[in-house]
Design goal:
Helix content is 23%, strand content 30%. It is built from seven helices and 20 strands. Helix 1 packs antiparallel against helix 7 (393-410), helix 5 (305-324) crosses helix 6 (368-383) and helix 6 (368-383) packs across helix 7. A hairpin with a 5-residue loop joins strand 2 and strand 3. The chain is globular, with a radius of gyration of 24 Å. With 422 residues, the protein is an alpha+beta fold. The protein folds into three domains: 18-126, Nuclear Transport Factor 2, Chain: A; 144-213, Nuclear Transport Factor 2, Chain: A; 218-410, Elastase, domain 1, CATH 3.10.170. It has a seven-stranded antiparallel sheet, covered by helices on one side. The longest helix is centred in the last third of the chain and has 20 residues, at 305-324.
Length: 422
């Protein structure tokens, strides 16, 4: 019952705010009038909080109608050049993704996403269209076979380890200088070198333009955490910090848990970085994140690594739960949130997409209420355009953080159930 109530309340808070964010450097954009604007081109990259009229038809038809009505606003030369590639249903409605084409050739990285609410009104548009004017030819000079050969040679592929036959498709690729290139996009999986490879090759010169390994492996580890905090776990409000001492009365509060979604080790070294959460050292007192030769992170509260493990576990748990509701959290850094377990102040920094936790009387990283509260601000930022603390937003954001923290703890303990930060 509690889980159902939490799910219902969470959806009610965020039902109209499903976000697909372009993963680009935030410094490239300006924010004004509910728009994210490319500072270099002046083109609207995203428009939020749209109050459109009601449209009729399928999700694709509705999205096309809106883009046709507003093509000048988004600098779209022709809506007919947009190819639908995906329609997704979420708790907030539907989103339709288009890919730009130029003379029938797809343009890489030009996804445009139109979000439609349950009432067939447009709520948000993420505009990935690019201005392609300098492409000299749409006819490749080198063959598919030659492109694949060049790709294999570049990374020294052992062809006997290929997982399947390579795929090679013609694309237009705009580089960092906004120059348009006709390319072969070669995709293949191999065991030597291990990877899910995506290689862009100039279709006229055969030159390698970019190499990407899309393979991402995640592993499970283990860690010792407070789940929940000792006061809530042991039903004892008399417990004190005692200068980070690992004293006897606290031992029953430790839980050994599974740490999911950890990145594969690099050079045989594991760290607390994964699909949704990444530990960093970003501010004073500058304490380096822990590393380990195994995926077991077992510490007690008197040791530096404990808070780091505790934060990773609780943020990752909340993120998995939010994902189970159908929400995809994405910030300018990607779908992971960075945190500093030993910062100078406990707060969320939207500019840096990072949370810091203060080592105080009781280290904030030991208290799941603080961890989840601060992550609540990050969730608010991912789901609401123009996140900030102006007007009523401060109160709303603080309320969201408190609601998530208390609801999360109530799943673990009924002790002092109405008190935040026990």
């Amino acid at each position: 019952m509690k889980t159902l109530l939490m799910k219902s309340c969470f959806i009610a808070l965020f039902i109209s705010t499903f976000l697909f964010a372009q993963q680009r450097n935030a410094d490239m954009y300006e924010y004004r009038n509910n728009c994210r604007i490319n500072a270099k081109t002046g083109v609207i990259a995203a428009k939020y909080n749209i109050k459109s009229p009601v449209y009729h038809g399928s999700a694709e038809e509705i999205a096309r109608q809106y883009l046709e009505d507003n093509k000048e606003l988004f600098s779209i030369s022709s809506v007919s050049n947009l190819k639908p590639i995906q329609t997704i249903e979420s708790p907030s409605g539907k989103s339709v993704t288009f890919l730009q084409t130029y003379q029938g050739i797809p343009v890489f990285g030009t996804e445009t996403v139109v979000s439609i609410n349950k009432h067939n009104r447009i709520t948000m548009v993420v505009n990935g269209n690019k201005n392609i004017t300098d492409l000299k030819s749409t006819n490749p000079n080198i063959s598919i076979e030659k492109a694949i050969e060049n790709a294999f040679e570049k990374i020294n592929v052992d062809e006997t380890t290929l997982f399947a036959s390579p795929q090679c498709d013609l694309y237009i690729y705009q580089d960092s200088l906004s120059n348009a290139n006709l390319v072969w996009k070669v995709n293949f999986g191999a065991g030597e070198p291990l990877g899910d490879w995506q290689i862009f090759i100039n279709a006229n010169s055969g030159e390698i333009i970019e190499i990407q390994n899309l393979m991402v492996n995640y592993v499970n580890g283990s860690g010792s955490v407070f789940n929940p905090d000792p006061i809530s776990a042991l039903n004892d409000a008399s417990l004190t910090d005692q200068n980070d001492a690992d004293y006897q009365e606290l031992q029953g509060a430790y839980k050994t848990v599974t740490l999911t979604n950890l990145n594969d080790p690099v050079g045989g070294v594991y760290c607390l970085q994964g699909k949704y959460v990444q530990s960093v050292d970003a501010e004073s007192p500058y304490i380096s994140p822990v590393t380990n030769a195994s995926s077991s992170f077992i510490y007690n509260r008197s040791q530096i690594g404990f808070e780091e493990v505790n934060i990773y576990y609780h943020i990752n748990t909340i993120r998995e739960y939010v994902g189970s509701l159908g929400f995809n959290l994405v910030w300018d850094t990607g779908e992971y949130m960075r945190y500093d377990a030993h910062g100078s102040y406990s707060r969320y920094y939207p500019t840096f997409c990072r949370i810091s936790f203060k080592d105080d009387y009781v280290d904030d990283g030991e208290d799941q209420d603080v961890v989840v509260h601060e992550y609540g601000h990050a969730i608010h930022d991912a789901l609401i355009a123009g996140y900030g603390f102006g007007g009523d937003q401060r109160g709303v954001s603080e309320g969201i953080g408190d609601y998530l923290a208390i609801s999360y703890r109530r799943q673990l303990s009924s002790f002092q159930a109405d008190k935040i930060f026990p």
